[in-house]
Structures are given as structure tokens and as C-alpha cells.
């Protein structure tokens, strides 16, 4: 018995509908007709904001990572808390994901230029690319067409990897989002820009373990420098901390060079050197910035595919569902 052509066709369509890879939904030319000025509007907003506040690039890059790791890249990180729900923004590691106003500003301009067209999730993804390029890093074409989420829960920030994770835990955390060991090491290179508060690394500086006061994987002189920046006791400012690498506003491969000399700030950074699965990648990038840039662009595209929503709404306001 032969199937009719029409039935076979319907079956093929049905199979595609079930197993359609999420990447298939996204497209580099998604707004070419509906909002041709979208990327220019976002770039200009991000560029101007960076001129006024040099902390903006690192914050927007981190925002993209957090957004994608919690509920997929759906701009849930921008939603405000309500009377009955505490949102991601107000969840535990809320110490440095700020600069929401930049995305809000870009989105407001986009609503004027092309109402209800460009999703907040796409604005975050494009802004993350722009801050990397503006800081001297690579450029890549951002795939677009993400829809926005309507749910944001503070307790889900617990699913973000903490800076105390070892390599096995990091690999698992990234694998759960379809990201490889290499993606993990490459995206950790995002720590080539930005700042950390003392609370994120001071467990490495004293009382590290039963046997060692200071984390033995940390360069001793570097540990002393960090200790001075993070005096114990209550009389340190709430902004006490350190830059993540010595060229903290430049996107380069210095992060990997510092790891080679024991100067990674987080345990999770330094651990990449202590495991054969990741060590070779650190060494490669430390001596080949071009390779790092090429792979970073590729891994950011993969990060931007995590848990993408193909159906749903384009939020009008960044802070509320429609
Ligand atoms: C591999 C697992 C990761 C861990 C454990 C981790 C952890 C952290 C921690 C603890 C901070 C400092 C927060 C603070 O004290 O203010 C931080 C900052 C930062 N992270 Fe990560 N991160 C990871 C991956 C990533 C990825 C994949 C990116 C982007 C591609 C990224 C980009 C950043 C940036 C740019 C900052 C600086 C933020 C600022 O200056 O405000 N991180 N990260
Ligand atoms: C540039 O950024 C500053 C600071 O965020 C803001 O006050 C100003 O309105 C912006 N200008 C434009 C043209 O976007
Ligand atoms: C961070 O989150 C905690 C717990 O949700 C909250 O109590 C605190 O006010 C927040 N801190 C800042 C600076 O927003
Ligand atoms: C987070 O809280 C929601 C209710 O607000 C609950 O349904 C969910 O199970 C919690 N998730 C985790 C990971 O604790
Ligand atoms: C990583 O940490 C987990 C949980 O603490 C532990 O079970 C595991 O043995 C550690 N793995 C390595 C390679 O240190
Ligand atoms: C180190 O840990 C021990 C026992 O856990 C504690 O008694 C001591 O006060 C700690 N020292 C510092 C400097 O935090």
C-alpha cells in the first residue's frame, strides 16, 4: 500500500514540527524588512551609554549570559517583581547585573521606529555583541527572531554556576544547555572585561581549606594584592572588589594569560588550568587571540540559541508582559 503524496508531505511536516531545532527559528535577516534600523538603533544606544558609563559593556555581556542560562534567552531577566512574585533581577546574585536602563532605552526607541516588532530578547543578544565589538573584540552576525518570556522567578538564579564550581560542575552546567567543554572555556573568556565584588572570590583568600589558608592554585603575590582590596570586617565599601583582568575594559586574550600565571580571579577561572579537559584550550587562547576571537563569536551564537522561544510575545515594555 502506497501512501499518497499528500500524506507523506503532511508526515514530513509533522516530524519537522516536532524535532525542529531551535536554531532553525532564528535568522540573521529577521528584521531586514520589518525594522531595518533595529541594529543601528541598538548600537547607537549602547555606544552612547558606554561613553557615559564605562561599566556598561561588562554588565550587558553578563546580562546576556544570565538571561540565556535562566529559562533560555527570553529577556526574563528584564521583568520586574510584582506583589506576588519576586523576579530574577531581585534574586540572589544581584550584585552586578545592572544597566538595565540601556536596554530599556534602546527598546523605547525601537517601539517608536517599529512598534511591537523587535523582541527584548533580541535586543539583549544584539547589545551583547555590540559591547564586545566596541571593547575591541570580534564582531559576528546575531541571529534574531527570539520571542519574549512572561515569567521570571528569583529562585531560578540558583541555576547559575557559582564561582566556586570545579571543572566537572562547570562542564555539566554548560552541557545542560547544549554547550560543549570548549564553549564553556571560550565563554569564560567573557571575564576579560569587568569587575567582581569581594564576596565572589574572598573564600580563596583566607581559611580556604582545612590545610591551606590561601587557595594554592592562586599566585601568592596576587592573593596578597586581592587581600588588600578586600579587608575583612565591616568597614569596607560595598563596592570593594577587583577588575577581572588587568585590561578590564579591553576585550582581549589577557584573561587566559593571567590564568597561566595563577591570576584568575574566581576559582572557576583558575580551575580551567588544573584539568586536562580544559587546560589545552586555555593555553591555545593565551597564545592565539585570533583563535579566541573566532571561537568566542561562534560560542556566543550557540549561547544565543539556548532555550529560544519560537512562539509567544514581543513585549512592548521590557519590564512587563503585554
Ligand atoms: C563559567 C561560569 C561562570 C561563572 C562561575 C561566573 C561568575 C561570575 C561572577 C561571580 C562574577 C562577579 C560578580 C560580582 O561579584 O560582581 C562575574 C562577572 C562577570 N561575568 Fe561571569 N561567570 C561565568 C561565566 C560567564 C560568561 C559565560 C560570561 C559572558 C560570556 C560572563 C561574563 C561576565 C562579565 C562580563 C562579568 C563582569 C560584570 C561586571 O563588571 O559588572 N561570565 N561572573
Ligand atoms: C546618552 O546617554 C546619556 C546617559 O545615559 C543620556 O542621558 C543621553 O540622553 C543619551 N543620549 C542619546 C542621544 O541617546
Ligand atoms: C539582592 O537580593 C536580596 C535577596 O533577594 C535582596 O534582599 C537585596 O535587597 C538585593 N540587593 C540589591 C542591591 O538589590
Ligand atoms: C521557585 O518558586 C516557584 C514558585 O514561586 C516554584 O514553583 C518552583 O518550584 C521554585 N523553583 C525552585 C528551583 O526552587
Ligand atoms: C567537583 O565537585 C563535586 C561536588 O563538590 C565533587 O563531587 C567532585 O568530586 C569534584 N570533581 C573534581 C574533578 O574535583
Ligand atoms: C577560620 O576558620 C576557623 C574554623 O572554621 C575559625 O575559627 C576562624 O575564625 C576562621 N578564621 C578566619 C580568619 O576567618
From TrEMBL:
GO terms for molecular function: heme binding; lactoperoxidase activity; metal ion binding. InterPro entries: Haem_peroxidase, Haem_peroxidase_sf, Peroxidase_pln, Peroxidases_heam-ligand_BS, Secretory_peroxidase. The record marks 62 as: Transition state stabilizer. Substrate binds at residue 161. GO terms for cellular component: extracellular region; vacuole. Residues 1-24 form the signal peptide. This is Peroxidase. Residues 25-322 form the Plant heme peroxidase family profile domain. Its main location: secreted. Its cofactor is Ca(2+); heme b. Keywords: Calcium, Disulfide bond, Glycoprotein, Heme, Hydrogen peroxide, Iron, Metal-binding, Oxidoreductase, Peroxidase, Secreted, Signal. The lineage of its organism: Eukaryota, Viridiplantae, Streptophyta, Embryophyta, Tracheophyta.
